[in-house]
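User: Please predict structures.

Assistant: First:
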Amino acid sequence: MKFMTTFKFRDGAHSAAAKKFLEGGAPPPAGAEILGRWHASDGSGGFSLLETDDPAVAYEHALTWSEHLEIHTVPVLEDQQVGPILAKVYGS
């Protein structure tokens, strides 16, 4: 299952978050893989795409950064997953 995370730096936490990232690179917990991470060009935050079969692992990953970042994580589906559902619901 894929989870999209959006993150925004908490007030005054940018330098501490940057230091933590540079020291460890923000690896995911065991049982998860980061498929991509993108940073907003204005420096306000960014997005990451995590894959795991255990939602608790997504929670753990968010929790390790919650001191520095405001984080929102949602499960996401790809087009090939959504297409059949749309066809079923709306007919095609």
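Second:
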Amino acid sequence: MRQIYGKENIKVTTIHVGEGFEEPGVIIFPDTSEKRLEIIWDEQQKPEVVKLRGRKSVWHTEERITLGTSLKELEKINGGKFILMGFGWDYEGAVVSWEHGLIEEKYNKKPRFLLGISLSPKTHNYDTSVDGDRKFSSQHPVMQKINPEIYEMSVSFN
């Protein structure tokens, strides 16, 4: 990895995985937000999860899904609605079902990996009726109005 990205672009550390838990891993390009990648290792020192976090990234899927992609853009790519969690907690905006859409067919039915996506409002000034540990359709009127964007993407390898 150091030969590919350069020793100065690799930071061995722990990666936040939610609810106060961390796992050993590395950050590639830790000082360049748009290129930053977080990698969590499995017991055999192979990548288990690769994460992107933030508002913008050079990394993307074939369909150009990336940090900053909006809910409405995801609906277009997916070919319809999907289900996500409410905002304002550790798992805010996590997509929990693609409702048998194109994203599920392409990414989450593969035996090799799982694509995880979480969205959040672009501002803290939004209708909080979509907050909390509850599921919402992407078609919910408040979700459509605030049109949240991806702030975290992950690929989990099986």
